[in-house]
Specification:
7 strands, 8 helices, 7-stranded parallel sheet, about 230 residues, alpha/beta
Amino acid sequence: MPVIVFASSKGGSGKSTSAAILATELAERGATVTMIDADPNRPISKWAKHPGKPAKLTVIADVSESTLIGTIEASARTSAFVIVDLEGSASLMISFAMSRADLVIVPTQGTQLDAVEAGKTVQLVKSQEEAFRIRIPAAVLLTRTSAAIRPKGLTAIETQFRRAGFAVLSTQLHQREAYSSIFSFGCTVAGLAETGQFTSKQIDSARANARAFMTEIVNLLKAAKAPLRAAEVA
């Protein structure tokens, strides 16, 4: 089943947050999902210790360079989706994960400095393609953007990516307190309703954005002819 890798060379890109949002959206719609937490800070593993994790979502944190490929392949045999949250620096772990990826997502904030780092990560994907002689689809995800305002600088950055031959997701993950709060409360975006800290409008807006993100990822996998159980994400 498809393996989706989240990679970024820069901290604060929204890598773990976007990985968690995708995983929970898929799991809440009935898909079995395994998340492999390969980030040394273990943000996903810490979040998963709380009781609000979806029942169909499994988190694995005990991985190393020597066990990562085996863990990915074993998880792909039992789960509809495998999502890997990588560490932020170049390593064999990143190379190994990319070699098994059906799709690499490179999250980045919409600043020029962040865009430069995102470009380095996409170039790393291309170097892995050459090294392993395989095609590894990759796309840039713009994070922490405004839902109401589209700055000219952001448009310019998107143009730069596309001129460089980098795919950019149409969906952006907007700046929403709900997204960062799932790590504070240990739940999904939908589960924030039980905290009493967010209005239904805030949660609905965040979920609509998350759903659009999930849908675009699923459609990309279908277009790439990844081994997708489409019926599990109806």
